[in-house]
Design brief:
The chain is mostly beta strands. Helix content is 5%, strand content 38%. The chain binds zinc ion (2 copies).
Length: 135
């Protein structure tokens, strides 16, 4: 089964295949910039199952970090699609809201809750972690 998605303007389209390794909500400070203020809703997928089927994304990485995350986004409309994260080699963290159908999303864990703001509420049925679960 493949999943499909796109940026807001449609210049970028992508697809990927199963498996989905995890589904999560991230409450860190960085994610509030990227989400607009709420927790970032993401899934972790295999990098080699993912391809852009239309357009070429722009990338961004911070120059002040030793191992920065590489962020892929649309250069036209700015939609943030996915992230390559050095702590997760071979994986991509994909923003759930860019999937054509994301009605099935069901996060299992809330991470970086140490940065959570009081207006943000973690769903009761999921596990929450100050930072990330120990491997
Ligand atoms: Zn776009
Ligand atoms: Zn985060």
């Amino acid at each position: 089964m493949s999943y499909t998605g796109r940026c807001y303007c449609g210049d970028l389209k992508y697809e990927f295949d199963k498996p989905i390794h995890s589904q999560l909500l991230c409450y860190c400070r960085e994610c509030r910039y990227l989400s607009g203020g709420e927790a970032n809703a993401s899934i972790v997928i295999s990098e080699n199952s993912f391809r852009f089927t239309k357009g070429t994304p722009k990338t961004f990485k911070r120059g002040d970090l030793e191992k920065p995350r590489i962020r892929f986004f649309c250069g036209n409309c700015g939609t943030h699609i996915c992230v390559k994260s050095p702590p997760r080699p071979g994986m991509l963290v994909l923003k759930i809201g860019t999937l054509d159908d994301h009605s099935w999303f069901s996060p299992q864990s809330a991470i970086y809750c140490i940065d959570k703001q009081s207006y943000q509420h973690i769903p009761k049925e999921i596990s929450s972690f100050e930072r990330v679960p120990k491997a």
